[in-house]
Amino acid sequence: MEGQGRETFALELDGIVKRYGNLIAVDGISLRIAKRQLYAVLGPNGAGKSTLISIAMGLVKADSGHVRLNGASEAAGLSQVGLCPQELVIWEGLTVWEQLLFMGSMHGVQRTIARRRADELLEALGLMDKKRVMASALSGGMKRRLNIMLALMHDPSVVILDEPHAGLDPQSRIWVRDFLKNLSADKTVIVTTHDMEETEKIADRAVIIDRGRVLAEDTPSNLIRSVYPAHLLELSLDGYGSQAEEITKLLAAGFPGLMQQGRMLRAESDNPLRLAGQIRERLTLAGIRDGNGEIRIRNANLEDVFIAMTGRGLRE
Ligand SMILES: Nc1ncnc2c1ncn2[C@@H]1O[C@H](COP(=O)(O)OP(=O)(O)OP(=O)(O)O)[C@@H](O)[C@H]1O
């Protein structure tokens, strides 16, 4: 039974702990990531994402806990993993094509196979016309795309990408989004990211970690539903100038579900239209000019969940 279960997991982390002096970077994380899916690791700066990935790759040794890659202990599984680090690892003096073949030869990939694979990757990430161009002449977003290709030249079954969305221009963002989604049809793709919008669009599952611990793990839509089952109503205080404080006090007294978040009052509601009407009525009664246009009703997104769970914005 146990052996059978293992075959379905690309990565299993069991009770991982990592300390740096007094700081606990990873505080007992256990995760099972099933094969052939796109899995996002989310967390604010310093949450422990990179440390966890480095431990999964065998680059950093955990103080305790176990890692299994494709059912094997990490050393046995590493050749099946491709890592795309946060920093660009590119040889500026080689052309795009030369780098891909060079990476293939470093992994011992047969030359004809490497050439075919390099062509497929160039096609899939939209860089075919840059094949003969020096890496130093590529734009930032193109370099990041090349960085992803280099992690795939040995055709690993598990690909780990540390912040693949960081610093991408809109065009590169679309290439990377489509590429990762397609890749996850037959490989396990694990990304660490701050990009909630991308995660919502492409991830099959996501884990939110903070201070080295797992806060929640599920599909993006279940994560959202679990925290915000209803709609969100938001009242922006920006248009009210010096009356903002008075309005906050007035509405807090009448609508206990309304919470202040910065320059916004926010409530969750099954009937946001009715609530909006009640809020407007209250404001009118108090002689405050119609708040029409200041109220917005929307569905919650992953960023709302992240802020609710970690108490922090993404880039704080
Ligand atoms: N080599 C190290 N020595 C000492 N402390 C470290 C080391 N590596 C990481 N840390 C600390 O461990 C904690 C977790 O860091 P980590 O880089 O894993 O977080 P992260 O979630 O990847 O953050 P970011 O989103 O900023 O990349 C941080 O407090 C960091 O300062």
Task: Offer a few descriptive terms.
single chain, 316 residues, alpha/beta, Rossmann fold, six-stranded mixed beta sheet, four-stranded antiparallel beta sheet, binds adenosine-5'-triphosphate, AAA+_ATPase, ABC_transporter-like_ATP-bd, transport, P-loop_NTPase, ATP binding
Report the structural category.
alpha/beta
> Could you name the CATH homologous superfamily of the largest domain?
P-loop containing nucleotide triphosphate hydrolases
Distance between the termini: 44 Å
In spatial order, strands of the major sheet run: 6-7-8-3-9-10
Largest sheet: 6 strands, mixed
CATH class of the largest domain: Alpha Beta
Briefly note the CATH topology name of the largest domain. Rossmann fold
State the low-pLDDT regions, or none. none
Q: What is the annotated CATH architecture of the largest domain?
A: 3-Layer(aba) Sandwich
What string, H for helix and E for strand, traces the elements in order?
Answer: HEEEHEEHEHHHEHEHEEHEHEEHEH
How many helices in DSSP terms? 12
Radius of gyration computed on alpha carbons: 24 Å
> Which molecules are bound in this entry?
adenosine-5'-triphosphate
Overall tally of domains: 2
The overall pLDDT, averaged over residues, is 89
Number of strands: 14
Question: Percent of residues in helical segments?
Answer: 25-40%
> What would the principal axes of the Cα set say about the shape?
elongated
Domain ABC transporter: 11-236
Keywords: ATP-binding, Nucleotide-binding, Transport
Protein name: ABC transporter domain-containing protein
Family: Belongs to the ABC transporter superfamily.
